[in-house]
Amino acid sequence: MGERGINNHSEMNEFILIGFQVRPELQILLFVIFLLTYSMVLLGNIGMIVLILIASRLNTPMYFFLGNLSFIDLSYSSAVAPKAIANFLSESKTISFAGCVAQLFFFALFIVTEGFLLAAMAYDRFIAICSPLLYSARMSRRLCIQLLVGCYFCGCITSILQVSLTFTMSFCSSHIIDLFYCDVHPLQKISCSNVFINKVISYSLSVIIILPSIIVIMVSYIYILSTILKIHSSEGQMKAFSTCGSHLMVVSLLYGTVSFMYLTPASNPELGKVASLCYTVVTPMLNPLIYSLRNKDVKEALKSMLWGKKGFL
User: Fold this and answer.
1) Distance from C-alpha of 256 to C-alpha of 210, rounded to nearest angstrom
2) Using an 8 Å Cβ cutoff, are 45 and 288 in contact?
3) Considering its fold, how many domains does the chain have in total?
4) 90 Cβ partners below 8 Å, 6+ apart?
5) 70-118 pLDDT, tens per residue?
6) Do the beta carbons of residue 295 and residue 244 sit within 8 Å?
């Protein structure tokens, strides 16, 4: 039986990504929507990265993390969107076995890294609001880089474990993935191996990843809220809230859509696909807009870049 599983696994050289099951004429509409959305992801996140790199007023720990958030959003969206866009116009809708492995690896790497990065950003806001006089000393360049490296390390280890577990399974019963990209749960569904251990480890990894990040974010904002409530002037309270509002919106978007996807009943897979669409391309498109529209420093730097005002560099 083991030899048969190995043979079937070795014969599998491609998968079919069926994506959204709609009429052929609607495939063109979905192609246009995906293409426009992904174009906005590219424009918004590359624009944000360039702005942070060249605007001296944005040379702070907060924008160091924000620039990396834009890079991560751009990266995990790019792991999924180009292939999905191409498949809308393709008859076969296939992805090679190696392509599927690579797609899952990079998507898992960047989505997990983003979760930890959002926790690091919450800690940054905690220090900025609760200990403003010590902010420059505590949030040193060295600490920021260490936090970023730690986020990528956790993402890389998680991705390696998840990919190794997923692709040691045999896929002898089917090679049709009921999603527009390679993900763990659809691959488990089409495996002819016993996936109980894989599911237990997958859920355990999810808890290990999500729980610490959520705890750091929640504890940081409990302290932030208590500090803000001690500020006597309403103007001071609003200013403090404004520095956190964008981050809270981004956290809510990511964790809300991911939770919605994985908590969606198996009997309604199309709803899960809509949630997947939200956090693979819609959230990366909205994040730069959230930070640029709600942040005075970003808006001023953008105006300076566009109109060439003095003091930009």
Assistant:
1) 12
2) yes
3) 1
4) none
5) 999 999 999 999 999 999 888 888 999 999 999 999 999 999 999 999 9
6) no
- pTM of structure: 0.89
Chain center to CA of 235 = 33
Nearest to 95 by CA among 20, 189, 184, 13: 13
With tokens 């610490």, the residue in question is: 212
Distance CA 189, CA 161 (A): 19
Residue 95: both structure tokens together: 């992805």
Compute the C-alpha angle 90/95/101, nearest 5°.
155
Distance between CA 275 and CA 272 in Å, rounded? 5
**CATH number of the domain where residue 282 is located:** 1.20.1070.10
Q: Domain of residue 150: give its range.
A: 15-299
Q: Is 233 left (phi over 0), alpha (psi -120 to 50) or beta?
A: beta
Tokens (6 digits) for 55: 């605007």
Other CB atoms within a 10 A radius of the CB of residue 209 amount to: 18
The DSSP 8-state label assigned to residue 281 in this structure reads: I
SS3 (DSSP) at 176:
strand
Structure tokens at 298: 């970003």
